[in-house]
Design a protein that fits this description.
Helix content: 40-55%
Shape: globular
Oligomer: single chain
CATH topology of the largest domain: Topoisomerase I, Chain A, domain 3
Number of strands: 6
Mean pLDDT: 85
Order of helices and strands: HHHHHHHHEEHEEHEEHHHHH
Number of helices: 15
CATH class of the largest domain: Alpha Beta
Low-confidence stretches: none
Strand content: 5-15%
Largest sheet: 4 strands, antiparallel
CATH architecture of the largest domain: Alpha-Beta Complex
Structural class: alpha+beta
Length: 376
């Protein structure tokens, strides 16, 4: 190429590579880079090209890498990892291969993950202790948090409570309702709408009393995970004066506009000392744990078993206990697979209390015989 053409090509190729990186969150991109750095370190020790271009069967090298990550010698944190975390390292290495046009080194000729890698991961999963899953909090925990916030003048406390309520009713992930680096984005002021009857309210000009009287509220999906861009999801009044998605979003709208928040301001923000401050996952987790500690062990779980991630499960379980069909719960929560079932727990006493009676009543039946069953 002529020098000018070559420079232009390199410039545009650099822009394209940057765009590829922007396809995931900064946190995920950093994690992939860190895994690749460990892979390069491993390959350097073996005097190997990191892309293994001259090696036909790459699986043994991936196996040894995975083994060393699993034991911690090649893990970034230098401690043993669970099977799933180890698998993530190998996947991120493969994604770097793919990013430069190379083939996925994990896959065989039929384009499936090689049998040897699959069996290694499966064996490690059997060795691992059961995964720690956060407990879905019952509504009494959220009621307690809302009561405290309703009697507080601290904008931080009130913002945390509102975001907990919103996350519960809309089945949101932490990245959607707090300030955190993730694959998704938190909802902005511009994504919020309030309605009275069938009429949409002008959030910029309607009096506070009118916003507080709203009967319906919506959030518009943009870059949230598994959301359809531009899709509008809404809720009506819950019937509770504070623990209500409409009331909580109205309170957020009033606070944001009182302080002249730009449309791109996250609704998980509060104004303090002339500065916009974020509501963080740590804020949510601390508040939930304090409420669980206050309510005591009668809840059936301990404070360290809840976090900002539990509100999505809490909302899903509330719907399950209300006898809402799992398909509807999956639709509301934007689950695209059966992973939703991991959020639904049979530890709910209200869900399970009547099943033994139903099983006793309906457990007596006859099967249709096949031809091998002798006739009476």
């Amino acid at each position: 190429m002529a020098p000018v053409v070559a420079n232009n090509f390199c410039r545009d190729f650099g822009a394209a590579a940057t765009t590829v990186q922007a396809g995931v969150s900064s946190g995920r991109a950093a994690s992939t880079q860190a895994s690749w750095n460990q892979w390069e370190k491993y390959c350097l020790e073996l005097a190997l090209d990191p892309f293994l271009q001259t090696i036909e069967d790459k699986i043994p090298y991936l196996q040894v890498f995975a083994q060393r990550v699993r034991t911690g010698s090649l893990a970034i944190a230098k401690h043993p990892l669970r099977a799933r975390s180890t698998e993530d390292y190998v996947r991120q290495v493969a994604q770097t291969f793919l990013s430069v046009g190379a083939k996925d080194p994990r896959k065989d000729s039929s384009n499936t993950i090689d049998f040897r890698l699959q069996r290694m991961i499966a064996a490690w999963e059997k060795e691992d202790s059961p995964p720690h899953r956060v407990k879905p909090v019952p509504i009494k925990v959220i009621n307690n948090i809302a009561f405290i916030a309703d009697h507080s003048t601290d904008p931080h406390t009130r913002a945390i409570a509102d975001m907990i309520i919103i996350a519960f009713f809309f089945l949101l992930r932490p990245g959607e309702y707090t300030s955190t680096p993730s694959d998704t984005q938190s909802f902005k002021f511009k994504d919020l709408q309030l309605l009275f009857g069938g009429n949409r309210l002008n959030i910029a000009t309607a009096p506070d009393t009118v916003l507080k009287a709203a009967t319906f509220a919506t959030l518009t999906f943009d870059l949230q995970k598994n959301g359809v861009r531009g899709e509008v999801v809404g809720h009506g009044l819950s019937g509770h004066p504070t623990v209500c998605p409409v009331k909580a979003l109205a309170r957020r709208a009033i606070h944001l506009r009182q302080h002249h928040a730009p449309p791109i301001t996250p609704i998980a923000s509060f104004h303090h000392n002339n500065t916009w401050m974020p509501v963080t996952p740590a804020d949510i987790s601390r508040t939930l744990r304090n409420a669980v500690a206050f309510l005591g062990p009668s809840l059936g779980f301990l404070p360290n078993e809840v976090s900002a991630r539990c509100l999505r499960a809490a909302g899903a379980n509330a719907l399950l206990n209300a006898k809402v069909e799992p398909e509807i719960i999956s639709l509301l929560g934007r689950w695209r697979s059966d992973t939703m079932l991991r959020y639904l727990t049979v530890q709910s006493s209200s869900l399970m209390k009547a099943y033994s009676r139903k099983m006793l009543q309906d457990g007596d039946y006859n099967l249709l015989p096949n031809q091998l069953v002798p006739m009476h």
